[in-house]
Amino acid sequence: MGAFLALFTFLFFTCAPAKPNAGLKTWGRFSKLPNPGDKAFLYDTFPKDFIWAVGTAAYQVEGAFEKDGKGPSIWDTFTRGGNRIIKGDVGSDSYHNIPADIRAIVQLGVSHYRFSLSWSRIFPNGTRGSYNEIGANYYRNLIKKLKEVRVQPVVTLYHWDLPDHLQQTLGGWSNPELVEIFKDYADFCFQTFGDDVKFWITIDNPFVVARLGYGSGVVAPGIKNDPDLPYRVGHNLLKAHAAAWHLYDRHYRPRQQGSLSIALASHWIKPSRTRLESLQECQCSLDHVLGWFARPLFVDGDYPPCMKARLGPRLPSFTKEEKDQIRGTADFFALSHGAVLSFQLMNDFLKFGQQEDLDLRMLLYWVNAEYNRPPIFVVQSGWHVPGTTKTEDPKQMYYLKRFIAGALKSIVIDGVNVIGYTAWSLIDGFEWHREYDIRQGLYYVDFNTSDMKREPKTSATFYRNVIQKNGFPELPENRPAQGTFPCDFAWGVSAKSIQVETTPTQFADPSVYLWNISNNGELMKLEGFSAPPLRRSTHCADYATIRQQVDEIRQVGVNHFHFFLNWSALVPTGDVAHPNSTLLGYYRCFTRQLLHANVTPVVTLWHHTRQRSSLPAPLDATNKWLNRETPEAFAEYARLCYRELGAHVKMWITLNEPNDEMVSYQEGHQMLRAHALAWHAYDREFRHTQGGQVSLNLHMDWSEPAFSFSREDVEPAKRVLDFTVGWFAEPIFGGGDYPLGMRSWLRQLNSLDLPVFNEEDRQLVKGTYDFFAISHFTTKLVTHAKEDSYTYKAMLEVQHMIDTTWIMSSMPVVPWGLRKALNWVKEHYSDVPVYVMANGVQEDPAHFKDSLRVYYLYNYVNEALKAYTLDGVNLKGYFAYALSDQRDPGYGLYGQVHEEVIVKASLSNYRNIIQHNGFPIAEAEPQCPSMPQPCRGCQVLLKSPVVGFLTLVGFGVLITLGLIIYYTAKRRKDCY
User: Fold this and answer.
1) pTM score of the predicted model
2) SS3 731
3) C-beta separation of 482 from 920 below 8 A
4) For tag attachment on the chain, is the N or C end more exposed, with fewer CB atoms within 10 Å?
5) How many angstroms separate the CA atoms of 678 and 673, rounded?
6) Torsion of CA 27, 28, 30, 32, to 10 degrees
7) Which residues pair with residue 422 across a beta bridge?
8) Strand 418-424, strand 51-55: pairing
9) Confidence class of residue 951 from pLDDT cuts 50, 70 and 90?
10) Residue of 666, 695, 670 lying closest to 605 (CA atoms)
11) How many Cα atoms sit within 13 Å of 661 on the Cβ side?
């Protein structure tokens, strides 16, 4: 394999020179990929020979800093300087714990283990003359143990821990003499360990060594007085690496057949603006970090033009012979991408006004384009978590998932030759300048125990599962479903409210006009004249706002429309004997017109909003829902609506999303009573004549255990659902009381907040439903572990978080969460009819090609189909949210610019799903009869009102009066 990689490298660098700034196309390419489809999680597997690895660095984990003849390193000296009291003298004590580390490696199932050699453990003063046999034997034994468990070593010669003697006597890497000294050290290592090592890393992250060690002084050796010193150090590091590569290539590769490179680390950066200048600054930022070392090795033996132009004489120059010596001295591209450097550049200067980002996939593509498609081995990748974290590390686990998923897309979609991935790191240890403040290990190390006990974290379990499956193989539940919904399926759209203009706009103009028929045909208002008032009552067809809204709803293709009434507006005094009759008449007309357009009205009586109570003023002023009279007043209000609108409304929602976290348990108790009273009122007084159905609608976002493989998170997720959904569902659809888990948890907290149902209320509330309706928008992960930067709910002792691989909008887009929510309803309440009463996503209202909403609706409806066809959920309807941005900003299928209504792409796509009643198999015969259409006359009138004219001819003009309008209105009345 090593010979093949060497030949591959030679051919690329001699036959295919890199084009200048070839990586610049990266940002443009990814901006043109389908959004959000390209961001969707890719279920697939890695190539069969893919390398799965885990890694450590000597100073971080070995300890035994002066045992068995080891000499001091610059880090031993650095941690004893200034006010520092925390040292890496013990680290994770891997020097005495080879068996424990090997067990952890075996448990992970990796094929390769990356570790570094402590130069001063082998050569205490840095040179061969100080050779320490015991130190060398430590590494011989480690490699032997790895080979016994069939794990290949990936050996780093230098991971920042230079023998301090070389720093004190020669000035460390600032001295060109270190090139030959490093070459001699490498020669010993190749000769001693090389028969068992197929992957060598010469130097880890020379950027950190040069800029942070000899520039800012943040890391050892802590030098920070000469701003040009980092570039001279980098110059020497490149020469040292090239010298070691040529040594291996000439003297060891023919027999050992290994491969050798240098580990280069980088951030990723995105433009703050779309202009070319911003892209060029991004390119220059990468050149100053990654290109500083990568371009000499992989392109032409020289520094990036951007660096040379900006730094001028501060940047050392290579002779032609040195360029030839350096160019092509890497058998693969060893890429580090993690918290040590990525996302933590030590000063903003190197960002050049642009923004850092977490995207490993785009970085891989850039490397692939910029450096002629080299084989890329990700030799370090991971995230850090606070030092207080023990075995539960959800943040690290999901970042690990994100980075691995990015590497998979890079291979499968982008065609990048990624040959391996290394999770960082195996165990917790000394984290350089961060000391022990953070933990990066997949295994938790208890630093307070004598044997430094190692315990697998949840990230270790996750990584093991990924390795076992070689990625994320597609499962049947991940695939789109094909099939259709039942023929009577309710396809709907929801809106929080409708546009209300109670003044009729039809025939409201009493003016008389002149029609200049003999010239230009214009109508000219005749001043001083008016038509006699119409002696007739207002008709539903008089409202242009109703006609427009009904027409918009009909164009969506739905057969149901869900909207909310306003209790405080309909009954402003709280007394149903004195309602707002004009508004009631408007709603009556609206629901009637919906029916004539073959759209079933679904009406909500009251909707909870955090901004206002929407209760009539007298109730709003007297304890709102805590007033014992409010439920009875709500029942009277419901009776009014049933009586006035019930002839046209066959589906009622009493309360919409009352289960809000801002609602107290006492308020919720009264809301349950209000719902029950309203339900019973309909059941006893109106059902037999109107034949409708009544229920309430609950907000039900899904709660998924953050660690699906851990029982410890299953219970917290169940607890969240009990407190959010079961709180209202169990008294109505279940046993007539609050969930047992809810009561027992509050009892455990000695809380008396949850009211107790007396027998009368229990009987009142239980069974007051005709269907189960939910609003569902997103999914959250729930864990019992507590970490910084996430929302922790102290009362429930749970933390909400997200999977960083999810598509993000204002909320995560997680289609499978809807299917799980529907199954929860089925599991708890058997065959109850279920309606998804609102489902949608917020997107910039200016995006009329709303690709996110198109993706959202397609995939959420498809998950609903799976729940129906595969899981047996008694799903009766699906309602997209919402109709228009005008009433529900950012959620609409219709947009609006000034007065113009815009049909968005999502509307056409949703209509297409409805027309096919789901996702039928190609060429399958339709199973349902065509949907009935509204009467032809009604359609005509809805689109263009008929105007009648009476004309009087005289003096060469026609005087036109609106005197036969009654006939038109009568036609409408007959039709409606």
Assistant:
1) 0.89
2) helix
3) yes
4) N
5) 9
6) 160
7) 53
8) parallel
9) very low
10) 695
11) 9
